[in-house]
Q: What sequence folds into this?
């Protein structure tokens, strides 16, 4: 009787898991399959072909958009991690201070606000500053970088803060007892222990910046990012290079996630946590 109940429970769990995985990954698998379709029609399968991958690499507009997106994502990830590390340090290590609640609210507000509202607010800000600071009048790499850092730094802060909370304070206290200065404690003790969280936050911020569309739409001028290019092609008229570029972005993101997971695992193993 007990064995039957366990078997029934296992079957139900397998069915639920299968439905969840199908719901999540069937659209992605469909996108990947049709990226190898030779036909120009999205709903008609003719035969397997690499035709659109070759066309993708020969399209200068796509190459430019990918270069801009990679540059912005990398710069945004670096800046977001720096801001996130400092903000997490203040939240966890600094004792109660005046305005702590407001500080926490401002750091996490971009996670709560709709991206369209944030993009519109930043657009109005850049238009106003454009009359004073010429660099903001021509919206491009700088404005989109600021917008993405504003958005991604909140997520990086949350990830790094969770790692900060897990740290053993006794290790820092031992370094202090041995005569280390606060800067030496942070640089030689705290920061190495934070690397798994920093790396995770950087990877998270990179992927968020890479795939962000609303902020890119509002804060860029003529420069095209990958999400803007995909949107423009879907509006102007479907092209088979859309699923091709989407497949490459998906596989690239999956590869980065696996690399990030492997790196975090190796860091934990080196620190003796695994």
A:
């Amino acid at each position: 009787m007990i064995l039957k109940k366990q078997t029934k429970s296992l079957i139900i769990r397998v069915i639920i898991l299968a439905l969840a995985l199908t719901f999540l990954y069937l659209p992605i698998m469909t996108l990947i399959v049709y990226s190898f379709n030779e036909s120009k029609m999205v709903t008609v399968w003719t035969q397997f072909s690499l035709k659109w991958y070759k066309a993708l690499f020969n399209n200068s507009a796509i190459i430019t958009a990918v270069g801009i997106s990679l540059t912005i994502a990398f710069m945004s990830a670096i800046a977001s991690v720096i801001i996130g590390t400092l903000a997490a340090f203040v939240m966890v290590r600094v004792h109660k201070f005046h305005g702590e609640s407001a500080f926490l609210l401002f750091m996490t507000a971009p996670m709560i606000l709709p991206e369209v509202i944030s993009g519109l607010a930043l657009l109005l800000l850049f238009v106003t500053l454009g009359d004073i600071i010429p660099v903001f009048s021509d919206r491009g790499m700088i404005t989109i970088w600021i917008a993405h850092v504003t958005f991604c730094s909140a997520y990086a802060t949350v990830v790094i803060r969770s790692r900060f909370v897990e740290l053993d304070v006794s290790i820092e206290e031992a370094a202090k007892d041995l005569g280390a200065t606060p800067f030496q404690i942070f640089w030689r003790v705290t920061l190495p222990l934070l690397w798994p969280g920093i790396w995770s936050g950087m990877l998270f911020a990179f992927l968020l910046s890479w795939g962000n569309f609303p902020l890119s739409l509002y804060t860029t001028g003529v420069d095209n990012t990958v999400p803007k290019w995909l949107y423009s092609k879907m509006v102007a008229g479907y092209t088979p290079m859309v699923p091709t570029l989407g497949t490459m972005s998906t596989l690239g993101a999956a590869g980065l996630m696996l690399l990030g997971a492997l790196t975090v695992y190796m860091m934990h193993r080196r620190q003796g946590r695994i």
